[in-house]
Structure formats: structure tokens, C-alpha cells
Design a protein that fits this description.
Strand order of the largest sheet: 3-2-1-4-5-7-6
Domain Methyltransferase type: 41-140
Number of helices: 10
Structural class: alpha/beta
Order of helices and strands: HHHEHEHEEHEHHEHHE
Strand content: 25-35%
Bound molecules: S-adenosylmethionine
Organism: Aquatica leii
Oligomer: single chain
CATH topology: Rossmann fold
GO molecular function, one term: S-adenosylmethionine-dependent methyltransferase activity
InterPro entries: Methyltransf_11, SAM-dependent_MTases_sf
Protein name: Methyltransferase type 11 domain-containing protein
Largest sheet: 7 strands, mixed
Number of domains: 1
Length: 270
């Protein structure tokens, strides 16, 4: 996940979990227009969404908006492209202990297309709860289940790639095989000290993708592309593409498609 340019370029896939979610659900967020506020965007990636969309949504004066990301290269890119006095990006693994300066700091916590990376979901939501002020609000989306993670399993277990794959489950949502993902997530969120306002499972279906769109998208989100030796890189990506479904009703090469189930949640800290 260290390719900020490619991730930003393949925004037509990423926007389904960010811009589209904001368009449909931002109305759930309440604003008290007189207060100065602090906002977090967890898993801010290249920072374009934090800068181009999130900042523009608030009527309140913004004291601080912080993009948080585990990837140093994403944070470096985001700071040099979008950073300013109020908007900054920081390297932080949201599964780890919350830095002191962020305890009870944020009024709003957003996150788009990131939490499927987090294995310990209980710890994740306890940490977010710690970061928020009482009555703080959060809105987030993440992938619950996707064919892409089954494709990862098929390719990553091949003997030629095995020496470079340290964890075959990396990046796989812990709800991928769950029979009742909504119920499980709801329990985790409520037990972490939140009052749930909305939980949904959206079915996303992105059509008419070209081979190149998919190639760039997989390179930008696949944690092992960079770990492959040079002579295996191209084959590694093409082996993924071999399993991506194609729409027989669309003529021409741009008929790759991607379907997945995505959580969308709005909740308040109690
Ligand atoms: C798919 S990108 C999403 C970028 C942006 N939110 C968007 O929707 O366009 C996911 C981001 O989550 C970050 N990430 C993954 N695990 C993380 C963790 N444990 N803590 C913080 N960030 C993490 C990755 O480095 C990556 O930049």
C-alpha cells in the first residue's frame, strides 16, 4: 500500500467507499456551528480525499484535521502535497496504543476503505473511542467481504510466491468468512462504548474496468507486490488478473468487474 500516485489515479474504485459514502450519509452528522472542531481521517492514504472533500464539509471553524496512516510513504506524499497549518498527516498504526496528545481529542472520526486491514477489531474500536470526545461522532466504510481476498489466497499460496509472503491473511477482512458480519461488527462497536446510529451492508458493483485499471488498482492495494523480486512482479499481478471476473455482455477489453460487500457505519461515543 505504498503507491500514493497509483492509488489516487485509480480513484474510480476508491471513490465507492469514500465520496459516494459521504454523498449518501454525511447528512447523519450533526454540527454545532459555533464550536471549533478537531477531525481525524484514519487510513488517509495519499490525502486527496481528506483535503478535497472532508475539509469542505464542515460549517464549523476547524482547529485541526489529522490524517492518520501506517504507511510512511503515503504520509510523506500527503504532507508535501496537501499539508498546511490546520491539516497534517501522521504515521500511526491505529491498532497500537493511542498517542497521549490524541486522547479525547477528536470531535469527528472518519475512515474510508481502511478497517478491513485491522485484525484486532475490538482493539481498533476501543482505540477510536479513546481518541474521541464524549458525544463525538464517527462515520466509516470498509470492505466486509470481497472476491479479491479469495483471489489473494489462490495466488499467494503458489510455491513460487510463498517465500515472499509472510502472512497469507494480510489485508483480509476478519469478516470475510463470517455468516453474520453485521451482527458481529455491531456487538464489537457497542461493546467499545458507542451508540450505533446506522449500520449497513452495501453491495458495490464496479463495471467496465480495463486490464490496466485493474493492474494499477491491484498494485496500489496489494501488500506483497513490492516484496516480489523484479523478475516475478509482472507475473504476480497477471496471476491475480486471471481470476478477476469479466462481464460477457460487454464487448471489448474493458469488461473486468469487481463486486464486494461494504460496511457503512455511523455511531456516537456514549
Ligand atoms: C485503501 S487506502 C484508503 C485511502 C483513503 N481513505 C481513501 O478512501 O481514498 C487504506 C489506507 O489504510 C492504511 N492503513 C492500513 N492499515 C493501517 C493501520 N493499522 N493504521 C493506520 N492506517 C492503516 C494504508 O496504509 C492505506 O493508506
Amino acid at each position: 500500500m505504498d503507491h500514493p500516485y497509483l492509488y489516487r489515479k485509480q480513484y474510480q474504485i476508491g471513490k465507492t467507499g469514500s465520496t459516494d459514502v459521504i454523498e449518501k450519509y454525511f447528512h447523519l452528522i450533526t454540527q454545532n456551528k459555533n464550536e471549533e472542531i478537531a477531525i481525524a481521517d484514519i487510513g488517509s492514504g495519499p490525502g486527496n480525499f481528506t483535503h478535497d472533500v472532508l475539509i469542505t464539509l464542515f460549517k464549523n471553524p476547524i482547529r485541526k484535521i489529522v490524517g492518520i496512516d501506517i504507511s510512511e510513504s503515503m504520509v510523506k506524499f500527503a504532507n508535501s502535497t496537501y499539508g498546511n497549518e490546520k491539516l497534517s498527516f501522521e504515521v500511526f498504526n491505529v491498532e497500537n496504543e493511542v498517542p497521549k496528545q490524541y486522547i479525547s481529542f477528536f470531535d469527528y472520526v472518519f475512515s474510508f476503505f481502511t478497517y478491513h486491514w485491522i485484525k484486532n477489531q475490538r482493539q481498533l474500536f476501543l482505540n477510536i473511542n479513546q481518541m474521541m470526545k464524549p458525544n463525538g461522532q464517527m462515520l466509516f466504510s470498509f470492505v466486509a467481504q470481497s472476491i479479491l481476498f479469495d483471489i489473494y489466497q489462490l495466488v499467494w499460496r503458489r510455491p513460487e510466491y510463498a517465500p515472499y509472503i509472510s502472512d497469507v491473511y494480510a489485508g483480509q477482512p476478519c469478516f470475510q468468512k463470517s455468516k453474520e458480519p453485521m451482527k458481529e461488527l455491531q456487538t464489537i462497536i457497542e461493546n467499545a462504548g458507542f451508540k450505533l446510529g446506522m449500520i449497513k451492508m452495501e453491495k458495490v458493483d464496479i463495471r467496465n474496468l480495463s486490464l490496466n485499471d485493474f493492474k494499477e488498482f491491484i498494485i496500489s492495494v496489494n501488500p506483497y507486490y513490492d516484496k516480489m523480486p523484479y523478475h516475478l512482479k509482472e507475473k504476480f499481478i497477471l496471476d491475480h488478473l486471471e481470476h478477476v471476473p469479466r462481464d460477457a455482455e460487454v464487448e471489448g477489453p474493458n469488461n473486468y468487474y469487481l463486486k464486494f460487500n461494504m460496511f457503512v457505519v455511523y455511531a456516537k461515543k456514549k
